[in-house]
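Hello Y.,

Per our agreement to keep a running log of every chain we model this quarter, I'm adding this entry. I've kept the format consistent with earlier entries: sequence first, then predicted structure.
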Amino acid sequence: MKILIVEDERELSRSMVSYLQKENYHCDLAVDFAEGRTKIESFDYDCVLLDISLPDGSGLQLLKELKNDGKMEGVIIISAKNSLDDRIEGLNLGADDYLSKPFHLSELSARIAAVIRRKRFQGNTVLVFNELTIDLIAKTILVDQKPLDLTRKEFDLLLYLASNKNRVVSKNAIAENLSGDDAHLYDNFDFLYAHMKNLKRKLTIAGCNDYIKSVYGMGYKFTM
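Predicted structure for the entry above:
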């Protein structure tokens, strides 16, 4: 799952990135309004953590632009401001949650997970596709009730495809989900092909049906 943190407090943002990466989230960071807007326009995220008070603009204005553009990311406002008016305005603009500073990073992670479950998985904590089970909380995979050992990238790849079930996902979108705004550093999709090959091989060996289909010239599709 891919997170954007729009936060100008360097120490806090570094702490959030460090903690969330250990929770298996891929994190991109923006330190002001302009950078946040550029990244939101350029990439798709599962959740955006948005500070209200940015050095060059209001996080609430960025939230308004995000929603006006039809972006579907979950949004959690994080702010030192704890006024009722700020919370109401943020929620009315389309934010999914509001967290006042200071906060515990474990609570932030739990709120992110809850937002993603609501937005991506209809509130479910466990996804079941016949013999394949994906536990979003434990971050584990079962095939016929037997655990399957995947790397973090393989887990993220499977979850991303499953969350877009029956939709063709482009190679660019998958690469961005796995590598964030570093995806442009790769000359080709060899890293994606390697992760895809290993994931499909492990699923097949475990006895899982081949749900991941290659769509020629377009990308991949998780279908049952």
